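Reopening closed ticket. The problem is back. First fold of the pair:
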Amino acid sequence: MSKLMYVSDKTFAQEVLQSPQPVLVDFYADWCGPCRAIAPIVEEIAHELNTKLKVVKLDVDQNPETAMQYGVQSIPTLLIFKNGKEVERLIGYMSKSKLLSKIEPHLS
């Protein structure tokens, strides 16, 4: 699978909801400091887990519909989807080890 990709309001359903593997969605904005801080961690996870997890980023300024649909009120918000359903919601910056501890239960 691909490592890290960007999705939009138009491609969200196809890339995330219809994905056969779990998906981590990073809701972010370019101006957001904590978003920039967690971005390298998200990228590392995308590379390390690329056979088990799809990792995508969605810019909330460019794609407000999807952010509103999922009630994203602060960023960064990381949502994990499995079989088209949200199974985990993580808000704010966190360490790589904490993020991995939240992701790993959804990889089986």
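Second fold of the pair, where the issue appears:
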Amino acid sequence: MINRRLLRIKLLQAFYAYIKRDNDSIPYAEKELLHSIEKSFDLYYFLLLLLVDIVDYAGTRIELARQKKIPTHTDLNPNTRFIDIWFVKELRNHSIFKKAVKNKGISWSNSPELIKTIFLEIKESKAYSEFMALEESDLQSEKKLLVSIFTEIIAPSEDLCQILEDQSIYWNDDSAFIIGRILKDIKKSSPGNLYIPEPGLVFKEKDDDFYVKNLFRKSIIHQEEYRGLIEKYAKNWDVERIALMDVLIMELALTEIVEFSNIPVKVSLNEYIEISKTYSSKNSPNFINGILDKIIDQLKKEGKVVKTGKGLIGELPT
């Protein structure tokens, strides 16, 4: 469920917290890391529930309009296309989704204004107007609207951002990844066949649990060794003045490159350089790339970087 990019970000955050707190034990820090990953998974259901509640709110407005003392023709004959979207109808009664919502105790009952605000934004959107004006909706037009709602209205909502921050310190950094996963699952779904992951299936691949725990522990164990290599190759830099996040990103990258023989060097490099674009300074990607290239060359000459299977992709024959 949780992809490797998000796992690497979670690892970086946990590594940073471990270094800054200084007196944490490794088992405690690892427990916090796994908790943050599980909380990311909770956000998946929380945002799906938001969609359901928005549609339910739209349905309530239609019913209230019908009950006016002097209803108009439109009040009595509303366009129900939005509240009839198949994905939401099936999601509302989906056993896995219902179980997740119940067991995790998630609810938007304390955020009625957010529900209203987002619905009104949806109603004013071009995508909604075009959808409601169709002579007849189909699977693709409904999916197109849902994608638009998540990417253009829910994702950039500052009100939602504040609520997520209040709910969990982990969620604001996670929302873009989780929304991306929701959209993939919507696109794969069809009437009678919704792609809704089981609450317990946190990791996307069967070896992700090992990947997370091993990379975290080995990064801590080898931190002094890799910090020394960074000092060696950052000749014109005072390592004490290099951004801590840059150093931690490089230490994680080096640990992954050395410890995981099935992950190509280029994949590890590219992933951590991409992460640095968001979590460090604008100059960090070039700096990190330059230093890591030199260190990796040394580690290869020393026989410390050994790749097998898929890890050999992109490697030149020797």
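Update: turned out to be a display glitch only; the data is intact. Residues 299 and 305 are 6 Å apart (CA to CA). DSSP finds 15 helices and no strands in the chain. Please close again.
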